[in-house]
Structures are given as structure tokens and as C-alpha cells.
Amino acid sequence: MGKKKKGNIFFNFLTIFLVLIIGVLSFVYFIDQKNLDKPFSFLGYQPMIVLSGSMEPALKTGDIVVVKKISPELIKEGDIITFQVAEDIMITHRVKEVVTTAGGVSFKTKGDANKNEDRSLINEQQLLGRVVLKIPYGGYMANFVRSKWGFVFLIVVPVIILFYSEIKKVFAR
Fold first, then answer.
1. Out of 25-29, 46-50, 88-92, least confident range
2. Around 148, how many Cα atoms within 13 Å sit in the side-chain half-sphere?
3. How far apart are CA 119 and CA 74, in angstroms?
């Protein structure tokens, strides 16, 4: 068997392995109901799905935003931040004013589509981070992947097809 064919087989098996790893990670972080209360975070970056239209037109319902954990002192007026208002409630709004208090830095925020500013100041402890990336409508795909059928069609079926084609190539020689 030539070096090129061995390289192709190695590359295809590596691809299958990577797809399997991605599938397992998807299962652990997106499908396993026990982990839904622990948001997925990687190297300080946390993807979240936009659930309301309070930030339209900048962020639409169904978009994915990637939030980067940063120091509160680096937040400035006009930044879009995500903060926690209750144990299971996170909000993404624009900073209208940075307020320095004796307790540290706080933020006045407002959703772009909302008429009024948010009622209370957001303190440093509530800050989850600043939005650094938006993936339009990515939340719809993430919700599909979370479903059983999404997992089957996007992970299991491609792995089976790749595996079958490689086995067929190996036995055809």
C-alpha cells in the first residue's frame, strides 16, 4: 500500500475520531440534562443563546453570543455585557453608563429595543462578561443539535458513513 493511501486512511480515521470527540462533548454539554444548569465555558468564553428581542436589531432571538469573562474595569459605555440577575436568569444588554462606587464598578444597562433603562445597577459580582462574537441564528442549530434527532443526524449518521466508507476501502484492496 502506498504512502499516499496510508495517509488518506489515517486522515479519514482521524476525522472519524474527531467527530466522535465532538459528539461526546456535545452530548456532555448540550444534551445531558444534569449539565444544563452549568453553562459551557471554554478558556473564559461562554456561548449563550439569545432568548428575547430586547437587544434587536443588534442581537436577534435565536442568535448565539459568545461572552468573554473580563475584568469589570475594562467594560466601557456602549459595550454589550451579560450579567446574572438570579440563579438561572442571565441578561445581555448594552452598557449605558459606567458608575464607580465605593463597592467597585457598577453598570447602568438597557436593552436596545427597550424604552427604559434597567431598574437596578449591575455590580461586579453579577457580571459574566462582554459579548465578543455573534453567530446569527446559531441558537436554532444548537437547539436542533440538543435534540435526539439532531444528535443522530449531525453526529451519528456522518460517523457511520465515514466508518463504512473506510472499511469498504480497506477490504477493497
1. 25-29
2. 0
3. 23
pTM of the model: 0.67
In 15-171, the DSSP E strands lie at 45-49, 64-68, 80-86, 89-101, 104-110, 122-123, 127-135
Number of domains in the chain: 2
Lowest pLDDT segment from 17-26, 52-61, 65-74, 123-132? 17-26
Domain that holds residue 29: 1-38+139-173
What does the block give as the cell for 163?
Answer: 466508518
- Contact assessment for residue 40 and residue 22, using Cβ atoms and an 8 Å cutoff: no
- The per-residue pLDDT for range 61-73, each reduced to its tens digit, is 989 899 999 999 9
In this structure, the answer to whether residues 128 and 80 fall within a common structural domain is yes
Are 120 and 69 contained in the same domain?
A: yes
- 165 or 109: which carries more pLDDT confidence? 109
**What CATH number is given to the structural domain containing 131?**
2.10.109.10
Q: How far is CA 144 from CA 3, 18, 21, 149, in A?
A: 40, 20, 19, 8
28 and 43 fall within a common domain: no
If pLDDT is split at 50, 70 and 90, which confidence band does 23 have?
Answer: low
Find out whether 53 and 38 touch, Cβ atoms under 8 Å.
no
